[in-house]
Design goal:
The protein is α+β, with helices and mostly antiparallel strands. The chain has 2 domains: 121 residues, Beta-Lactamase (2-Layer Sandwich); 157 residues, Alpha-Beta Plaits, CATH 3.30.70.270. The protein contains 10 helices and 10 strands. Strand 1 and strand 2 form a beta hairpin.
């Protein structure tokens, strides 16, 4: 009776292998206790050379001991609560290929508990995913670069007028909400036309870049500095009253006056300062700062006025 039963199991197993052989992707069955390959379909044999009777980790992965990612343990734990199956991705170092593994713990025809595995080559999908990820990363990078370019003055690297408009609107909203002061500083390079006429526009551009760096390094972390246009620069000073803005403007004026500017020799800048008044628009506050700048010019330049 036992011989007849075993023959019946063998016949069923053979018939099952034949059914598996028509499936184009690798299928293999492993004894959960001994790790012996119980059944291997034609696609699996062709892919790995594995045969029934061999140890799975040696035949498939050329590993001397059970694979660290083997799912027989987790599947056995899950089986205590019902049917156990797992789907996961794995990279096989032996053939440098990605697979999606669909593994199920089940009872085989001869009564053994086995792990039934279907391995689908997803290398092309992984390549496509990687290319798509790279494309998204490049697109995100380009988007950041475009956004940066849209708010940055190309010559000096400071914020441009558009960004200054946006920043002031934000700071004004915050100032009104929390009853905090906000002030503006407008600076202008003295006799800049003469610099261009005498030394050329390239030298004039170099001067603007040098002054931009002095301003950038001279303001506080919370201050927002940008190029307002031509040789004019604007600094937005959050949480700063008129006295505080005047002190900052004086500091900036002094640092520019102390700079040697090798190509042209020492040069100076003038500054106008204004603190926001309730009900004013950005344009109104800028106009008052600009009037103060004009006052600094007619009073001799290289000075701060409000």
């Amino acid at each position: 009776m036992a011989t007849a039963s075993r023959r019946e199991h063998t016949t069923k197993n053979t018939r099952n292998d034949g059914a598996f052989d028509v499936i184009p992707f690798p299928i293999y069955v492993v004894d959960a206790l001994t790790l012996e390959l119980v059944s291997v379909n034609q696609a699996m044999r062709r892919k790995t050379g594995a045969e029934a009777g061999q140890t799975c980790h040696k035949a498939i992965y050329d590993q001397p001991s059970p694979c660290h990612f083997c799912k027989i343990g987790p599947l056995s734990e899950a089986a205590a609560h019902g049917p156990a199956a797992m789907v996961f991705e794995h990279f096989n170092d032996r053939d440098d290929c990605w697979y999606q593994l669909n593994e199920t713990l089940m009872e085989w025809f001869d009564g053994r508990r086995v792990k039934h595995s279907i391995a689908v080559d997803i290398g092309a999908l992984k390549d496509a995913q990687n290319e798509l990820s790279e494309a998204y990363a490049l697109l995100a990078l380009k988007s950041v670069e475009l956004e940066k370019a849209s708010i940055t003055d190309t010559l000096t690297g400071l914020f441009n007028r558009r960004r200054l408009d946006e920043a002031y609107a934000h700071e004004l909203d915050r100032a009104q909400r929390y009853a905090k002061p906000v002030s503006l500083i407008i600076g202008d390079v003295d006799h800049f036309k003469a610099i261009n006429d005498t030394h050329g526009h390239q030298t004039g551009d170099d001067v603007l870049k040098s002054i931009a760096e002095l301003l950038r390094s001279g303001v506080r972390a919370v201050d927002i500095v940008g190029r307002w246009g031509g040789e004019e620069f604007l600094v937005i000073c959050p949480d700063t009253d008129l006295d505080g803005a005047q002190a900052l403007a004086e500091k900036l004026r002094s640092s520019i006056a102390a700079e040697p500017f090798p190509a042209i020799g020492p040069t100076t800048s003038s500054f106008g300062v204004a603190q926001y008044r309730a009900g004013e628009s950005f344009k109104d506050t800028v106009a008052r700062a600009d009037t103060a700048l004009y006052k600094a010019k007619i009073n001799g330049r290289n000075r701060v006025e409000s």
